[in-house]
Specification:
The complex is a heterodimer of chains A (154) and B (70). With 154 residues, chain A is mainly α. Chain A is built from six helices and no strands. Chain A is elongated and about 60 Å long. Chain B is mainly alpha-helical and 70 residues long. Chain B has a two-stranded antiparallel ribbon with strand order 1-2. The chains are: A mainly alpha (154), B mainly alpha (70). Chain A: Keywords: Membrane, Transmembrane, Transmembrane helix. Chain B: Keywords: DNA-binding. Chain B: It comes from Paraglaciecola chathamensis S18K6.
């Protein structure tokens, strides 16, 4: 397995574990007052992002120590090709998330009573979380498809 | 996922080139060993540039190394 593929595995597993834990923790916030829930959710986001950076850096260093020659290998055309195909898949999912977020914001502006009653009052930082969720899903799709291409060919 | 429709004789040509390793060929062509392996197994279609470089390493024409079986 090339360093590039190991690197993608690291990103995939760390993203799934850390943000899976993050979204599981969010579920408990629905019962709290919205201001308190917003505060806790914002801290959780920062914690998850910092943890992702820390885990990725540490694991990449560990892999590079065990296979220093592979780590120095530059990306070739196959790596770039798989990356482009995976980016296209991730981008599609991200755009869907952006459209849903826009819809939610527009709903809030046009029919505030419905938006308030059904969404904003029950979920902390809702617009931010729709965007964050789309981003995480798009990243997971991007990493998974890259792994799939490396394993099965394309 | 189905294999790509481009078959090749790289494995055979490596054997007749003093059993050249995949790593040696990869270095001569400028790709990773894993990419040579994927091309050999018809899991990946190389760009024309890499295909020409591979043919050049073995002193063969492109058609002698790669065959389209679509």
């Amino acid at each position: 397995m090339s360093f590039k593929e190991k690197s993608i595995w690291i990103s995939l597993i760390s993203t799934v574990c850390i943000f899976g834990y993050y979204f599981l923790n969010l579920q408990g916030l629905g019962s709290l007052p919205i201001e308190k829930a917003n505060n806790i959710a914002a801290k959780l986001i920062v914690k998850a992002v910092l943890m992702t950076i820390f885990v990725e850096v540490i694991l990449h260093i560990v892999v590079a120590i065990f296979s220093p020659q592979d780590a120095q290998e530059a990306e070739d055309e196959r790596d770039k090709f798989y990356q482009m195909k995976a980016n296209s898949i991730g981008y599609t999912i991200l755009i869907l998330g952006v459209i849903v977020t826009l819809g939610h914001i527009l709903l809030g502006a046009i029919l505030p009573e419905i938006a308030e009653a059904h969404f904003a009052a029950t979920f902390p930082l809702l617009s931010a979380h729709i965007l964050l969720f789309s981003f995480i899903i798009s990243e997971v799709a991007r990493f998974s498809s890259q792994v799939f291409f490396y394993r099965k060919g394309a | 996922m189905a294999n790509v429709p481009i078959k090749n004789k790289i494995r055979e040509l490596r054997f007749f080139a003093d059993e050249m390793t995949q790593k040696e060929l990869a270095e001569l062509v400028g790709v990773t060993r894993q990419t040579i392996m994927a091309i050999e197994k018809s899991k990946y279609s190389p760009t024309l540039e890499v295909a020409f470089k591979i043919a050049e390493v073995f002193g063969q024409s492109l058609e002698e190394v790669f065959q389209y079986e679509g």
